Amino acid sequence: MSGYEEMDFCKLDVDREERTGFPEVIFGLGKTPEQAEAIFGRIAEVHGRALVTRASAEMAERIQAAYPGAVYDPVSRLIRLDGEPKRLPGTVAVLTGGTSDIPVAEEAACTAEWMGCQVDRIYDVGVAGIHRLLAQMDRIRAASVVIAVAGMEGALASVAGGLVRRPVIAVPTSVGYGANLQGVTTMLAMLTSCASGVTVVNIDNGFGAAYQAAVILQLVAEASEK
Amino acid sequence: MSGYEEMDFCKLDVDREERTGFPEVIFGLGKTPEQAEAIFGRIAEVHGRALVTRASAEMAERIQAAYPGAVYDPVSRLIRLDGEPKRLPGTVAVLTGGTSDIPVAEEAACTAEWMGCQVDRIYDVGVAGIHRLLAQMDRIRAASVVIAVAGMEGALASVAGGLVRRPVIAVPTSVGYGANLQGVTTMLAMLTSCASGVTVVNIDNGFGAAYQAAVILQLVAEASEK
Amino acid sequence: MSGYEEMDFCKLDVDREERTGFPEVIFGLGKTPEQAEAIFGRIAEVHGRALVTRASAEMAERIQAAYPGAVYDPVSRLIRLDGEPKRLPGTVAVLTGGTSDIPVAEEAACTAEWMGCQVDRIYDVGVAGIHRLLAQMDRIRAASVVIAVAGMEGALASVAGGLVRRPVIAVPTSVGYGANLQGVTTMLAMLTSCASGVTVVNIDNGFGAAYQAAVILQLVAEASEK
Amino acid sequence: MSGYEEMDFCKLDVDREERTGFPEVIFGLGKTPEQAEAIFGRIAEVHGRALVTRASAEMAERIQAAYPGAVYDPVSRLIRLDGEPKRLPGTVAVLTGGTSDIPVAEEAACTAEWMGCQVDRIYDVGVAGIHRLLAQMDRIRAASVVIAVAGMEGALASVAGGLVRRPVIAVPTSVGYGANLQGVTTMLAMLTSCASGVTVVNIDNGFGAAYQAAVILQLVAEASEK
Amino acid sequence: MSGYEEMDFCKLDVDREERTGFPEVIFGLGKTPEQAEAIFGRIAEVHGRALVTRASAEMAERIQAAYPGAVYDPVSRLIRLDGEPKRLPGTVAVLTGGTSDIPVAEEAACTAEWMGCQVDRIYDVGVAGIHRLLAQMDRIRAASVVIAVAGMEGALASVAGGLVRRPVIAVPTSVGYGANLQGVTTMLAMLTSCASGVTVVNIDNGFGAAYQAAVILQLVAEASEK
Amino acid sequence: MSGYEEMDFCKLDVDREERTGFPEVIFGLGKTPEQAEAIFGRIAEVHGRALVTRASAEMAERIQAAYPGAVYDPVSRLIRLDGEPKRLPGTVAVLTGGTSDIPVAEEAACTAEWMGCQVDRIYDVGVAGIHRLLAQMDRIRAASVVIAVAGMEGALASVAGGLVRRPVIAVPTSVGYGANLQGVTTMLAMLTSCASGVTVVNIDNGFGAAYQAAVILQLVAEASEK
Amino acid sequence: MSGYEEMDFCKLDVDREERTGFPEVIFGLGKTPEQAEAIFGRIAEVHGRALVTRASAEMAERIQAAYPGAVYDPVSRLIRLDGEPKRLPGTVAVLTGGTSDIPVAEEAACTAEWMGCQVDRIYDVGVAGIHRLLAQMDRIRAASVVIAVAGMEGALASVAGGLVRRPVIAVPTSVGYGANLQGVTTMLAMLTSCASGVTVVNIDNGFGAAYQAAVILQLVAEASEK
Amino acid sequence: MSGYEEMDFCKLDVDREERTGFPEVIFGLGKTPEQAEAIFGRIAEVHGRALVTRASAEMAERIQAAYPGAVYDPVSRLIRLDGEPKRLPGTVAVLTGGTSDIPVAEEAACTAEWMGCQVDRIYDVGVAGIHRLLAQMDRIRAASVVIAVAGMEGALASVAGGLVRRPVIAVPTSVGYGANLQGVTTMLAMLTSCASGVTVVNIDNGFGAAYQAAVILQLVAEASEK
């Protein structure tokens, strides 16, 4: 536990990759394009790769001007500069309840890819038409980690949780209205799920779920290497 | 719109059966055994049948002493005096997610029976083991009205709602802890269900769901008679 | 329980009409006009009719360009392509507390019509001037199903629930301010109604109430046919 | 603005009657019987009358031992020592939705009587059987101030508010369960009532409503005297 | 209890003045300018005076074009057409905690004036500088009814409530941020006030407080006339 | 997806071990001792091991009478019958913020042991004395999965999350008062943690965290075997 | 930052006095009497003084048996063993709104005394009788730090905050009912106070307020010594 | 307690500096630029210095045109006219968890400077990289008062609170999303902190924390002078 780098307006955690296996990721929300660019540049320099979440188009434009290798995806709102991450074993299945959950699912899927995971996208398998989910059981069961992204009542997490022998991470989305309370109901419902061992991240936090998934696969990789 | 009967401490809605098809039902909570008995007696006299919900054992004892035909069920907490209700067509399927939801489900099932419905109890078919639910699809689809009783995240309502061509009435229960918020999460989740046309009643309100089911079947009966 | 159709970004539930009696309805919120049009087109092709709820003007313009028979109503925000739905028996009465509740009521009324119901609109009969409601009792009692649409304290549902022998479905609206909490108070008040057997749908969910009403009338129709 | 009296554990507001027209009333909750008795005694000495709200039986026993003229009513939980209050003009109508609201209504009615009002009790006129309320319209309209005591969705306040030309004070009660949220829903619903000019007091605060009613009639009395 | 007038989109409560003493007031929020104008016109015709609350500038422009006597005040957002209301006795004191509460206070003050009251505006007397309030005690005590308009913690209601012998009506405003929860905290705090007999209306509901004040003074007037 | 066993009051998911790697665990809350014993017996018969969570002393007594090998721990409230679970690789570190969090931590630790994990208990390392946590860094970093159990503001999860390269699962406890809101604040705080990739389970749900941990280590084991 | 002492079930922060000026205080809630006694004993040995908050009578009995110098006060629920604390300069004024707030106020007052402060208790000066507060202004203004303890709407904090040139620490209490929400309303109201620079602690947390007051006076003492 | 100055729309508390040590500060939110300028002018005239918080750019422009010495900082949204405040002893350390908290921290820092404090800004020391905080311990411990500004789960307050012997004032910020509930979670978490004696101000209320810090240092200054 040691070094960080003093920048003008922040303290860059350059030791983070050694400590946790992954470089610091830039949370774009609430940062100016200038701040994001400065941090992005320094991280790219040190680690050879960088990631911004919740990035605005303006932020992307500025960063891409300086770093032509950086790619911006307006759906997931990620700016990625892919280095050569260590390839992690297994796959991460990313499920969504509906089409409106796709932006959050893409934040998860692209983050996981940036971190070295192979991703299987299985979208629009919400429980109101349960046969759509059941028809995908083979793909879902083949995954090492399952990320269940859903809004409204979030029942996808419970149903998926009861079907697989792998860790299920639930991502509540703010898709819904009224009694949904901007995703708070979804989040609470997932936390009180009747399925054992489903864990939950913050509303719309596709990044967080992917991060945990990658950390799990990093554990698998390092355990296998021993 | 006309008559009611002035009792010592309340105004008895004796016209209710003519107006709505069913006599007034006594909500036991917050009434003294004396009050419950007095109303029970008068309703039994006028209508030949009576029902108390949320009844205490003490209340039951007192009423049964006076009305030996009255039956008390400690699970559903109902006191029933069955008259000869008009037999309603079709069946009401009452589903539960788990075994802890049974008291609320029994309140629904017994109320529906008292109102003249035939009931099919399909318990412990929660979504964490979805094959238990799917194995019962024939019975569920044979019902005229489906009452889905569940606690925790209440996903049963959404899954059932997507599978049947009949009205689904969801009853959230207060089974759960922490993020469940004494059933408030379950209730909100059911209201924001991704399934079309699921309607919801208050937490633990098995009576209300059964009442609506019976009213629907009364409509069917009266429509068929025409 | 079987087939669905894999589209580019979603899984279309083409079996739904056979399973539930009605084609899948498109929830417009959170979909791009392109997505809405694509699904609309495929549903129209398969079922000969289609419905979009919460549609934007832009979405309507695009769909109407491709499907001139589609009608857009900016008040209810529905895009309808009416096929030849099976005519359902009876009528659905749609009540509102005030004039501000009309958009939600129209979502209910037009959805019910699209599903084959005959609708009786009884608007502005809120309880602060109870004689307006009482003056309409004959029309309300003539209905097979009553949908009570109200904002603020939502008392209309309780008063209506006590007056009729038919199912009452309450739709809380987000009309109100302050203590109304964007309709959450209305919704909770309707759920804790003193009237027996009122069921409730999500805030502003006129569609959901109409769907349940049509499902009830479909039950009546199918029961009569037997 | 001047005097108060220093007691051992509190500061008695002996000027209050001159300032506001009524002596300080003792809120029993959270006080020991000893404290209640000490304050009661001093107030009785100064003003010739005293009132304790939310009194326990133990508190009553102790006070009655010392002040035989004090009367305890276990329903309203009031201990009253009636002096010779100034007789206030008009009447206060106290309405309840159901029988479970009676304890709170009695707190209101007895407080108003202690303060010099004439009270008309009109109980069990909840809106689920609206004809019971309408049948009492003459008595309700004859009142100078109307106190509407109701639990559950609290619709009584809105209906009453639309019918009379007099101030309506709504008292939400904690009668209900689930979505009722221990009366919070009732309270919020009354605050967002569609009736003009209904004012609201705290949950179960029959005392507060009666106090305001008496203050209004005191204003009438003093205005007439001029 | 009888007549109302069927308009195109609403049912006008023309009997209201006879029943309650005041014509129906138009709640502008959620109405189109066309709807507001149509109702305004009919009310003006029947009663010779009219009032719109929460009116937009566009609504005002349209109404003023048709009814040159109508006056619009952008601070209180009221459109008034003053007839010759019955002059009510006494005065209504309208207090505010700060300058940001003035719009709500003006809604109260102008409504009260339109209803026939004399108003004394006592602004910016919040409790963080208690001497400002104490310096106005003579004016406050001279009033027949006190309306206390305050945001933030709303302590003005409690302090005022303890000082006067007249009804105090508290109006919570949405002035504040963070823990204020858009005025919900203020409202709850006023409801749990330590002062006896303060009643409360909805957040920012200056109209409701004024309405109740006028109804009280109407009672005084009618009592004096007898 | 296939078989379950119909018991008198429930449907036993006997296929669960094959499907997920672990037998069904009995949630004791809301079950009668008779029900718990019956399920326990059947699971023990089929799988050779069983676990009850949230077990009462009475439940334990009854089960131990029938199954002398069953062990009851009143702190964690678990009844365990240990079979010969597959030994899982690595260790699970269970951290607590304070001594009051130990019952929840023990539920986690003992569940993990029952599922085949090796557990390292690191208790009372809350952040108000951060050096206690830092002094344990070697043990914490040696773990394969970290479970952080904490009440109050739950900061332990954020601090731990920033220090390790392994999955961190946070368990909010209901330890605290007032603003803690029975653990809801802790839970929300952990969900909005500034550390990347911390996932969260329900309040006091030590079982759920342990289950996910064991599932992760099962993945590691099965990946290594390949 | 260094040493702590490993006890059987916890890690004792023996360095705390050197680091912060005060020994660790034992939070009694959720600890067994045995645990409390063990920690008490070790702290008394190391520091010569000890304090337990939220102590039960049983806990006190056990500790007093072993440490006869320990004093238990059932009102404040503190067990104190007073060493010879450094006498801190100035005084701490502890105010309460009513008599029901006294237990929390005593927790504050006795804690401050144990930490070396001189305390001035000024009780029952709530704002509903503002002259009681104003009559004590000299004593309040003479204090170095003011602790304002109040329940209900908590207005005392705002009024006091506007009157003094010294730090005001507000302690919301859970005294109240209904809209008080067990003190949550009080707490939020104090946080959104219109007075500048009032800081707030948790509901009923008299200890926390006193701790901060003592830390402020320790700063004064150490600054004066320089 | 005496004088204030009647302005057109408010009552200026000109005595405030004498009473509390500091002139009244203008809360910009909800005031028009005209109102802000008028009050600013009068305060500047009386006290020779003035401060506006939550100022808009338009407000700043108008005030700077009239008072060229006034300085506007768009980050902290303060307009300052610095007079010659009494220099207060010691320093105030202002900490932030991340870069997004800087605007609130600057409101605190600049307010403290305007009030006469020396400020040490220690930004971006959030607990997810605890070594950044530990590396600054010497600076933090050198401060007389610590202001901890953080969003998300707000753990910085707890960690800092356990490390220093000086008053810690926590400022929750609205930085975060979802479960953060616009800073409400942060605020509640800080209030239920496991660290002793941390006090809390409203969300984003940097001003309030600085005000309390300055009042503490004023106490130190006045105590030292004696």
TrEMBL record, chains A, B, C, D, E, F, G, H:
Molecular functions per Gene Ontology: hydrolase activity
Pfam families found in the cross-reference section: AIRC (PF00731)
SMART domains: AIRC (SM01001)
Residue span, PurE domain: 90-222
A biological process from GO: 'de novo' IMP biosynthetic process
Record protein name field: 1-(5-phosphoribosyl)-5-amino-4-imidazole-carboxylate carboxylase
Organism: Paenibacillus agaridevorans
